[in-house]
Amino acid sequence: MKIAIMGAMPEEISPILEKLGSYKTTQYAGNKYYESTYRGVDLVVAYSKIGKVFSTLTATTMIEHFGADRLLFSGVAGAISPTLKVGDLIVATKLSQHDLDITAFGHPYGYVPEGAVFVEADKEMIEMSKKVASEMGKSVQEGIIATGDQFVANEERKNWIGKTFGADALEMEGGSVAVVCSALNIPFFILRAISDAADMDASFSFDEFLESSAKESAEFIMKMVQSIIENAK
Ligand code: SAH
Q1: Are 225 and 5 a contacting pair, CB within 8 Å?
Q2: Atom of ligand 1 nearest to the CA of 153
């Protein structure tokens, strides 16, 4: 077993690297990849940089180059659902690309021929996350995450994404990571802690809460990793 843990920004993976303590750093395809062992299991950790393209490159690299056989994403997101507040955790049940648009040909938003509007995350890890949440005494919401190459700081755009995809949160990497993992048959789990409400105050909220929310997410991800390892024994 080799578990990939990825984020998009340094702040999203630094709490994980801190917890691991020692690791081997490899420079590859313009990014750094950190390899370590945790409770006897191999891990590869990296942040991709922001957006669908970089996250695609990193997810693919972790699987194809470093040999990861499952992938967990830890990071922050903008809330769409009014029940999600800053610091709250959301587990993606399925993900879509909100900025993928060939509707001019009669296709729905987010769809490409031979693809699908939504990619579903691994059900076993979602089930496991419920147990982990209750052990930690945390409430974790499940929901749909919409991904696009835009920092959404606009109520109108956010509401459109919510309505069109039934999405509860939005961010910039989950949907592309989902496509990669699904194409390569790698079970994946996407967790986000809310940093902002994707409204006109989003950039201020993001700057204020990035670090604390990223930590919330990372802490949960490490408990998930523990649980995966224990279950495999
Ligand atoms: N402050 C950064 C840019 C952050 S972009 C800089 O200046 O370099 C936002 C990042 O957090 C992305 O990785 C995305 O996945 C997530 N995110 C959080 N809130 C978001 C929002 N409202 N819209 C889109 N992505 C958001």
Answers
A1: yes
A2: 22
Is-contact 90 84, C-beta < 8 A?
yes
Domains and their CATH numbers in the chain: 2-232 (3.40.50.1580)
**What ligand 1 atom has the least distance to the C-alpha of 172?**
15
Q: How far is the CA of 190 from the centre of ligand 1 (A)?
A: 15
pLDDT in tens, 70-96: 999 999 999 999 999 999 999 999 999
Question: 171 C-alpha vs ligand 1 centroid, how far in Å?
Answer: 7
Give yes or no for residue 233 having a pLDDT over 90: no
Q: What is the mean pLDDT of residues 144-163?
A: 98
**DSSP code string of 158-207:** HHHHHHHH--SEEESSHHHHHHHHHHTT--EEEEEEEEE-SSTTHHHHHH
What are the residue numbers of the active site?
12, 196
Per residue in 11-51, pLDDT (tens digit) is: 999 999 999 999 999 999 999 999 999 999 999 999 999 99
Q: How far is CA 59 from the centre of its chain?
A: 11
17 CA distance to ligand 1 middle (Å): 21
pTM of the entire structure?
0.98
CA dihedral 84, 47, 221, 125 (to 10 degrees): 90
Query: What rounded mean pLDDT belongs to the chain?
Result: 98
Q: Looking at residues 149-170, what average pLDDT do you find? A: 98
Question: How many Å apart are CA 57 and CA 46, to the nearest integer?
Answer: 11
